Amino acid sequence: MGLGCIPPLIIIFGALCCMYESPRWLAAVGRLPEAEEACWNLLGPVEAKSTIERLGATTLEMPKQKELRSYMQTAIMSWVQLLTLPSVRFVTFLGVSVSFFCQAQGIETVLYYSNDILQEAGIKKNQMLFATMLLGCAKTVTIFVSGYFVDRCGRRPLLMLSSSGMGACMGTLAIAALVKLSGGLHVAAMFLYMVFFSLGYGPIVYIFNGEIFPQDFRSQGMSFAMGVNRITSAMVATFFPAMKVWMTEAGALGVYAGISLAATLFVAALVPETQGTVLEDADMLQF
User: Fold this and answer.
1) Angstrom distance (rounded) from CA 165 to CA 103
2) Distance separating alpha carbons of residues 257 and 23, to the nearest angstrom
3) How far apart are CA 265 and CA 43, in angstroms?
4) Confidence of residue 167 (pLDDT cuts 50, 70, 90)
5) Mean pLDDT over all residues of the chain?
6) What is d(CA 167, CA 184) in angstroms, rounded to the nearest whole number?
7) Domains in the chain, please, with CATH?
8) CB–CB of 212/284 below 8 Å?
9) CB-CB contact of 92 with 226 (8 Å)
10) Using CA atoms, how far apart are residues 233 and 118, in angstroms rounded to an integer?
11) Angle 230-218-16 (CA atoms, 0-180°, nearest 5)?
12) Which of 100-104, 123-127, 140-144 has the highest mean pLDDT?
């Protein structure tokens, strides 16, 4: 288990030595030369030039604004306006809802309680390790596939495909648990569930929330949405054993299937497409 400390240390060391500071943050605090250098190194000459022009235009008036109000007042007002300002309130609702559905569809149940589910299905202990490794590989590989399609197909189609697929897989697991079907079906359903999650909601929840919030509210909005995401994750992981007792395993898995259906309908009805959105232009998005 001690070897598990090594990868995080390598990542931290690499981030300290190799990671550039955010060009947007550098421009926001008036360090435009450093922002330009970061853009040139990260984006290349063509895209860097247009990005630098947008950064300079959107941050030109920020020092004047900061002279009018203290930093603390600005921070407090930003949090209040995040929930009360009509032009931002609905954006916050969308970001928080997508973050909630990302976890409420039961991903932590599949990750944390896969052995329990497989044991109930009659899978032998020596086969559980292989099944767990299969789930991890499915998650990793599919994230790369999602990275290829997310800017080609858009966010909405992948989110709806993701929740629809997860709902079908959870429904299959619920039926299999109810009628005591073979363990092989459980493994296949959990494998496909992980594929659908990693294709859509897994990575897109961060992309979508980073694109919808106006620049003045992006850090607060992202923090709020990701906070809801992690709280929902903890609740799903904590309450699944109790749900099994209250409504049986089939009933608990059926609840997650129902939530996936609700997530699909929510995206279809309310979530806008943000493909191709430039972060500096998020203020102009129409919802």
Assistant:
1) 15
2) 41
3) 37
4) very high
5) 80
6) 19
7) 2-68 (no CATH), 89-284 (1.20.1250.20)
8) no
9) no
10) 21
11) 75
12) 100-104
pLDDT score recorded for residue 65: 46
Alpha carbons within 13 A on the beta-carbon side of 2: 0
State how far the Cα of 196 lies from the Cα of 175, in Å rounded to an integer: 19
Other CB atoms within a 10 A radius of the CB of residue 258 amount to 15
* Residue 10 CB coordination number (10 Å): 10
Per-residue pLDDT at 190: 87
Q: What CA–CA distances, in Å, run from 167 to 34, 192, 221, 253?
A: 47, 11, 28, 9
Helices of type H across the chain = 6-18, 23-28, 32-43, 45-58, 62-68, 71-84, 86-104, 107-112, 114-120, 125-153, 155-179, 183-199, 201-212, 218-270
Tokens matching residue 21: 């500071």
Q: How far apart are the first and last CA of the chain?
A: 48
Which region, left, alpha or beta, applies to residue 155 given φ > 0 means left and ψ of -120 to 50 means alpha?
Answer: alpha
Q: Which of 100-109, 129-138, 211-220 has the lowest mean pLDDT?
A: 129-138
* Cα torsion angle, 62, 67, 69, 71, sign: positive
* Residue 280: pLDDT over 80: no
